[in-house]
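TODO from last week: model CDP-diacylglycerol--glycerol-3-phosphate 3-phosphatidyltransferase.
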Amino acid sequence: MNIPNQITISRILLIPIFMIFLLIDFNWGSLGILGAEVPVSHFIAAIIFIVAAGTDWLDGYYARKYNLVTNMGKFLDPLADKLLITAAFVGLVGLDMFPAWAAVVILSREFAVTGLRLVASGSGEVIAASIWGKWKTVSQIVAAAAVLLHNPVFALAGIPFDLIMIYTAVILTVFSGVDYFIKNKHVLTSAE
């Protein structure tokens, strides 16, 4: 297994650690971070989440730079992204920090596109991430991080940056999902 795929797997392995700090109240108090009161456990969860999300860029950069792009990587990378995002949004919904409707829309799109990829793989085709899919992922990561950190910086000015990013993530998620299905409709028509 090459280094980019190992980096991707490290992202998957960070998910349970992230969930422990997100969901267990360790009563370690809170931190004042640029206008936001953040429980220490949420701060640690946010750092783990941001590091895990950062590995998405790192594995892709390394794979392209050293020509180590593999079909396994093309499969594992979006899977790791979906697992991380799913864990974050389900955990945040469980803590009543993220709107359930937004999580359902986002996760429904993720399952639908994963299904499309599975159908395509049955005929030997790999559907790589599009630019809209990448922007969708970035918006979801920023939304989750803003919520995890209780809207730092913007809390000082009273700007609901976390809410703005949730809506941005939902819009980009829906748009990119529609884009995948339009560009790859041949996969579904040839599978009949």
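Done. The chain has one domain: 3-187.
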